[in-house]
Each structure stands twice: as C-alpha cells, then as structure tokens.
Amino acid sequence: MSAEERRLDVLRAIVEDYVATQEPVGSRALVERHQLGVSSATIRNDMAALEDDGLIAQPHTSAGRVPTDKGYRLFVDRLSSVKALSGPERRAIETFLTGAVDVDDVVQRSVKVLAQLTNQVAIVQYPSLTRSTVRHVEVVALENARVLLVVITSSGRVEQRIVEIERTLGDDLLSDLRGRLVGATVGRRIPEASLRLAEVIDTFAPADRPIVTSVVTTLTHVFSNERSDERVAVGGTANLARFGGDFDGAIRPVLEALEEHVVLLKLLGEATIDPTVRIGTETGNDSLTGAAVVSSAYGSQDQVLATLGTLGPTRMDYPATMAAVGAVARYVGRILADG
Amino acid sequence: MSAEERRLDVLRAIVEDYVATQEPVGSRALVERHQLGVSSATIRNDMAALEDDGLIAQPHTSAGRVPTDKGYRLFVDRLSSVKALSGPERRAIETFLTGAVDVDDVVQRSVKVLAQLTNQVAIVQYPSLTRSTVRHVEVVALENARVLLVVITSSGRVEQRIVEIERTLGDDLLSDLRGRLVGATVGRRIPEASLRLAEVIDTFAPADRPIVTSVVTTLTHVFSNERSDERVAVGGTANLARFGGDFDGAIRPVLEALEEHVVLLKLLGEATIDPTVRIGTETGNDSLTGAAVVSSAYGSQDQVLATLGTLGPTRMDYPATMAAVGAVARYVGRILADG
DNA sequence: GACTGGCACTTGGTGCAGGGGAGTGCCAGA
DNA sequence: TCTGGCACTCCCCTGCACCAAGTGCCAGTC
User: Fold this and answer.
1) CATH code for A3-77?
2) Are B140 and A160 in contact (CB < 8 Å)?
3) What is the pTM (predicted TM-score) of this model?
4) Domain coordinates of chain B in residue numbers?
5) Between chain B's N and C termini, which has fewer beta carbons within 10 Å?
6) Do A252 and B237 touch (CB under 8 A)?
7) Which fold has domain A87-129+229-338?
8) Which residues, numbered 25 to 84 in chain A, qualify as contacts with chain B under a Cβ-Cβ cut-off of 8 Å?
9) A134-226: in CATH 3.30.390
10) What does the pLDDT look like over A37-84, one tens digit per residue?
C-alpha cells in the first residue's frame, strides 16, 4: 500500500468514526480502532497532509480532526460503496408501499418509510404531470350548461375540472368532442398532447367553436398546471431535533426551508436515476450549511416521473442513506408504473 | 376595589408580563409596570395567596412567579377579552384566502395565514366528507367495461373512482342508474345518502343487479371514506424553534406528534364554533406539557365542516391567538359555503 | 384589619483561577 | 519512511467568591 493510498484510508477511517461517534477523531483513537499498520505519529503526519488538502479540519488546536465538506465529497466519490439494504429492510419497504391505494397514498407512504429508514428528513415529489402520458380523457355533461372534465395520467393521477359553457351540450357534439380529445391526447406525453389540442378546435364547425374552445382551454390549463408539478410531501422532521446542534445555525431556518416547496424542489435538484449527493454549499442553499441532500429520480426505465430524497447532517452514513434512497426510488417507480 | 379583585388583577398582570418578557415576574417589576396602587410588599402577600391557590408558581426560591396551567385557565376564562384583529390583518386574511382556486388551496392558504398571524404552529383539518351534502353524482362509461364515478360535495370536494364491472353498460341502464343515484343522494348529507343508496339496488331488474351493486358499493365506500376525513394540513413548524426551550421536553416529541395526523385530530378536539382553549394536560397529550391548543370549528351557520387551530406554548398571547383563530375560521367557513 | 418599609435569607448566574486530559507538531533516531 | 518521545496548546470541568433579584416575615402605621 502506497503512502497515498494509506492517506485515503485514513480519511475513510476518519469519516466513518466521526459519523459513528459525532466527535472529532484523534490519531490515537484511529490506530486503536482500525488496522492501519502504522503508528499514531505516522497518522499524525498523514492527517497534516489531509488538512493541507482541505479534506479535514480541526475545531481547535488541540482537538481531533473532522471531515470538511470537501472530505465528505471525496469519501462519497471514491472511498465508499453503496451498502446493500438488509432483507428485512427491503421487505419492509415493499410491503409498506404495496398497501397504498392511490398515488397520494404512495407518496405519503414513501415519505414515511424513507424517513424511518434513514432517520432523516424525507422529501418526495409527487409524480410530475408533464413527464407522464395521458391515459384517459373523459367529458361529461352536467346540469345547467356545465361540463365535467376528467384526466387520468399514466402515473395514476386524476385531475378534474368543471367548465361553464355558454349553452347545453348536445349528445352528438359531446361524443364527437370526447372522441377527438381522446384521439389527440391519449397515449401521448403531456407537453405533446398540449400541442395537439390546439389543432382540435379548428376541426369543429364554427358554430360549435366557442364551446369547444372553453373545454380545450381548460384542458390545456390542466396540462400546464404548474401548481401540481410543485407538490411535495415532507416527513420525518422530528429527526431534525435528533441531530440538533449539527447544523451551524439553528434548526429554525431548516424548518423554514422545509415549508417552502419551491426551495425543496430546488434541493432535490435535477433528476438522475442513481442517487446523487449534495454536500453543504453544493445544495445551493445558504441556510443549509452542515446539511447534505441525497436524492434520486424515480420512474420506469424510459420515463422519469419525479424525484425523492433525504436531508440530513453532512455527518451522515452516506452508503446506507444512498442505498435507502435508491431502493425506495426503485420501488416507487415500479409501483407507479404498474398502477 | 376589593382585595380579592386586586389579586385577580395581579394574576392578570403576571400573565401579561410573563407572556411579554418570558421571564419570571417579581413583585417590584409588577408595581413599576402596572398601576396597582399598592406597594410591592402588598403584592408579595397577594402572590403568596395566588400561589396557595395553585395559580402561579416559583421556578426556585428566589425567583419571580410564573403562571401555572391553572392560572392560565383562569386568565382565559375570566380575565381576558378576545382582542379584535386590526384592519390590515383582517384584510390580509381576506385577500389571501380569496385567491384560492380549490378546496385544497383554501386549506393550504389557511394554514399559512394562520401560522403567520399567530407565529405558532397552525393546523387545519380538511372539510369533512361526512358533514357536507352531496352536490352532484356522475357516472361515466369508459372503455373495457369500466365506469368512472365522480362525486362532488357541497364543500367543493371532488372524489372519483374507477369501477370494474362484469360487462359493458348499456346507455339506457347507464342513464337510469345515474338518475336514481342522483335522486337518492343529491342534496342529502353523506350519512343519509349512504342509507338511501342501499335501497337503490332493489329497484333494478335482477339481471342488472350485479353491475349496479358494484357501482353502488364503490359509491358507499367513497361516502364512508375515513382516510379523507382524517386529512389535516400543518404549517408554521418553524415557529416551534422560536419558543424552543419552552416545552418541558425537547421539541422532538412535538414534531413527532405533528406528523401523526390522528394525534392532531384529537388535539383539535370536538367542534365548537367559538374558539376553545386547551392548556397543558387539557390537550390530553402527555408529550405536550407546556403547550396549549386554540381551536375552532368552521363552516356555515347550520353546518360544521371541520376544525382548525393553532398549537403554541402555554405562554402565548391568548386574546390575540383566539381572535386570529376565530377570524380565519369565519373566513374559511364563508368561502367554502360560497364556493 | 389592611398596607408598608425594612431586613435577613435564599438562590441562580457570572467571572476567575487552576488542574487534568486529549491531541497536536516536531525532532532525532532507526 | 516510519517511530517514539516530548513540549506545547487549548478545551473543559471544578471550586470559589460575589452580585443581583426576589422572597418571607415582622414590626409599625393609618
């Protein structure tokens, strides 16, 4: 083993010990708990080098070392491998999620299971409307010149709107309209379906266009509904209290951030199907010094639906957390693809 | 002013000062800040009497006095009057809530406004299904022997289910079924509508009964949906950090309680249209020593829809909180009654 | 009888000094 | 390149004295 390799070994040991004990780790404790094959004096030299590289730091002169954000970054990138979940853990996720009755329920259960598994704050974005396809569109005439519009998406979400129109809709026109709407949208992704909708209006007789237009406009609104794309569920905030003093600031700004859904969506970040880790400033949120986010996209092979993840102290068990996030993402994706 | 009256005046002053300063209040500070017309020695005697009655307590021998739960109770019952909201506050509630687009939005906005107004944790229960009436029922035939069932309630909530039936539904039967379902349910309260539904099945020809039964059964399920009756929204948890050390325990058990919706519903308690206050053990929750709940039912005059309220430290501004809870409840009730 | 001024007493908080412990950096030697 | 040893630094805990705030009680006054 080269000296360079041993230095990285030392870093790994420091991260692991610090995560376990929450206390700065010194050279002596290190040689006692790990088989490094050298003396504490050597470790001290290595530590000095690691500190020069900005990978670890000392809270004060005569204290042990603590990993820096950069140190965690290196640990995640090169020194750790994703831990496999235990059988019972995997079964727990599966049985718990399988019991869900609808999309909302899936999301809420995912949040709960993820929070319990990781002992951190769990964040799950609702399946995106814009990323799923249209499974069904239904138009129903109600009394008093009103129409009920129902859209069912491939992720199982159901959206409905009531449209006021200028006169009662005849049965012929109704079924004609229904047929063309279905033809233009079903099976297509939402953004494409939106485009096709615009063409539908022109295929109707001029006399019918006002009515058709109000229905189509409402449908377009449903498709472009930003609000529902922003929906997220949060759970396990009680865990914040557990790692209380860890965040440089108080937990208050963190709780505030968790209530701002826009902030949360930024935190989850861009979708990748493998778990991504953002540490400290990498989260792009100033009030989250001392915090890290582990996130992953979920969906089926060819279709990303949304993102989920956890928020915890930088001092977290990255391998375990990444495993949990990855596993839950896979199960959620599978369930929503089936349903 | 009798001696007895002055004692209650002293209690009121202690509560007000303690709420304002968060520090035990002594006899000297009391005579300085209030026009009590007697010396600090007299106040000391009064305080000793109040302490004998269990209305105030000393953290330690040489400290000032702090109100006990019993003291707050007396204060709320006899010594305070509900503070009127300021004009800007009332206008803020109104404009903020008026912008809501649907029931979910109303609830979410209410939580936000209530949390901001009171600087406490806000809890809003979604309008109860069982307490509202049926506004509309719609049955739509989908492809592949499936039927879409839509229910719209008086509170504006829309529920939908897809029912698998054994064979495709003829147009005649469909409109017949729709008509009878509407006749049996629309305009009635959900529990009563449920009862009527049972009779509908028998009015159909035996051959049609299997299909009718599956639809009616599903509809009954929607009506008796307990899950949606349990839904609550929580906001302002960041305020917990503000009154941090106030709760006897840590904030952790409180955060945990806030994630358990069942616990929250118990906290909101039985519905009364005027703001109710529960202090300390009165909340019926052991982990909430040091906390108080102010809650109120909302709805129209003759119809209670659900409950909302706030959770804060016993050391809170009761008059202001009760005013805010009452005002938000009134506005929410009005908006949902109109919508 | 109710109120007041005065006084002794209690107690938590703060500032200060000293000792112990953990850990480091560095140096000389293998 | 590694190791043992040693001097040094700094945090943290403890004990101590002191102060401020507040009380309880008592004797005196209206």
Assistant:
1) 1.10.10.10
2) no
3) 0.84
4) 3-77, 87-129+229-338, 134-226
5) N
6) no
7) Beta-Lactamase (3.30.450)
8) none
9) yes
10) 899 999 999 999 999 999 999 998 888 999 999 999 999 999 888 888
